[in-house]
Write a structure and sequence with these properties.
This protein has 447 residues and is mainly α. It has 17 helices and four strands.
């Protein structure tokens, strides 16, 4: 009799817990969907208006100058994605800065004049901030506060990706390499789906292109896929290193920060005049055309990477996810031409694979392939995502990510630390041969 009552009580508690988080996460998701949609629609409107002026990119030096000026003297408490990840990991989601995206002016300036950046950081900040405000209103404890902030964080990514499940998983997976917090899956999914539905109802449009894909194993498709995963992983590693080195170089320049912005803007103006406007701004049209199989310059991914590295290291504003997706799609197109494969298929696979490699989110990126490109290509995209994730090493565009597991038993790293603390400049990484390699070596010596 006691056991039966205990069982009923457990089920009742779990039922009430589910109801509690359905209500809270739906509320947070609805608020985030409304606020993030307003920001996204506003950004798209500004970009559309600026596109009427072909030479608006001439204002890049001025916009970079003003953005750096605001960052230095006015907007010192801006919470970027890295700071949000750190707050969720270390401080139960308690946000020290304002939850309002204080650098929204900088983001608008940069994207309106053609800076190569994305829009996910303000959306993630809006979401996390709304989750934090709701936690204050409900006066919850630290554990529930962390869940609520994470709900908003995931919902913000869902509005950017246009893929609610991938957005939720991305927000969870990006916190720590090799760990997924299962206790927050339900509220994160509900918040993300709610935010996505609200965004769609308010007129935010998203890109979907289900591929008519049939794997041709007789033509060596799987070998091409494995090779492509390695290529995308190396691209991800190179992009991370380029952004890190460029930021370090920019910080070391003995110039006033706004003058650095002015100089970087002139560099981008020169590159745009030399090449094309295709690599400015979000670049959504070229990226979508690439996935649809339209021809693109083979060096497009290199130029987009260059434009992005300069923008992010100089402006200190904007986000990186949208440029990463552009680089992935165009790198996939280049690889397809190189090996004689279908351009549309590998553009889609590169789209998610470089995202997986640069942010250490192979599961979320694999789900993104399903939601955007259909189930037929998803298993192969997942293989490429995992390879890219492995090849990019213990690095990330988000240096506050926590490393929970090593990517290889042959590499000895201090798990539990943030990725920024694993940089070879600051810490040694000892590489040892694994057991099976030592066995092979011993066998060869006997022969």
């Amino acid at each position: 009799m006691v056991k039966r009552n205990m069982r009923v009580n457990d089920e009742l508690v779990l039922f009430l817990t589910v109801l509690k988080w359905l209500f809270i996460s739906s509320l947070i998701g609805g608020l985030v969907g409304f606020a993030a949609s307003g920001f996204i629609l506003f950004i798209h409107y500004i970009i559309d208006q600026s596109n009427y002026y072909q030479h608006v990119f001439y204002l890049l030096p001025l916009s970079f100058f003003v953005a750096n000026l605001l960052s230095q003297f006015v907007l010192k408490k801006h919470l970027g994605t890295d700071a949000l990840i750190e707050a969720i990991n270390k401080n139960y989601g308690k946000l020290e800065g304002s939850f309002i995206p204080t650098k929204i002016i900088n983001v608008v300036l940069i994207l309106a004049t053609g800076g190569s950046a994305g829009k996910e950081s303000p959306c993630a900040q809006i979401g996390a901030g709304i989750g934090s405000v709701c936690a204050n209103l409900f006066r919850v404890d630290d554990i529930d506060r962390r869940k609520m902030v994470l709900c908003g964080f995931c919902a913000g990514f869902a509005c950017v990706f246009g893929a609610p499940i991938a957005g939720a998983l991305f927000g969870i997976e990006v916190l720590a390499v090799g760990v997924i917090f299962y206790d927050v899956l339900l509220p994160a999914f509900v918040a993300s789906i709610t935010a996505y539905q609200v965004s769609s109802a308010l007129g935010v449009t998203f890109f979907y292109y289900p591929l008519k894909f049939v794997p041709a194993f007789g033509q060596g498709f799987f070998i091409q896929l494995l090779t492509g995963g390695i290529f995308f992983g190396l691209c991800a590693y190179a992009l991370i290193r380029a952004i890190q080195q460029s930021s370090a170089f920019t910080n070391a320049l003995p110039l006033w920060r706004p003058w650095k912005g002015l100089l970087g803007g002139f560099v981008l103006v020169g590159l745009t005049g030399l090449f094309s406007r295709d690599y400015l701004g979000l670049g959504l049209n070229l990226m979508e055309g690439c996935i649809k199989g339209l021809p693109v310059n083979w060096y497009a991914f290199l130029l987009k990477a260059l434009f992005t590295v300069i923008t992010l290291s100089i402006s200190r504003s904007g986000s990186v996810i949208t440029p990463v997706l552009f680089i992935g799609a165009t790198a996939g197109s280049f690889f397809a031409d190189l090996v004689g494969a279908d351009q549309s298929t590998f553009a889609a696979i590169g789209f998610v694979s470089i995202l997986a490699g640069t942010t250490n989110t192979p599961i979320a990126s694999s789900i993104l392939a399903i939601e955007l490109f259909g189930a037929t290509v998803a298993p192969y995209a997942a293989v490429s995502c995992v390879i890219s994730f492995m090849m990019s090493g213990h690095r990330s565009l988000y240096s506050s990510q926590r490393l929970a597991v090593s990517k290889s038993r042959a590499i000895q790293v201090d798990v539990g630390k943030e990725i920024r603390d694993l940089d070879p400049v600051n810490s040694r990484i000892d590489i040892h041969l694994s057991t099976w390699l030592r066995d092979v070596k011993r066998l060869l010596r006997k022969r």
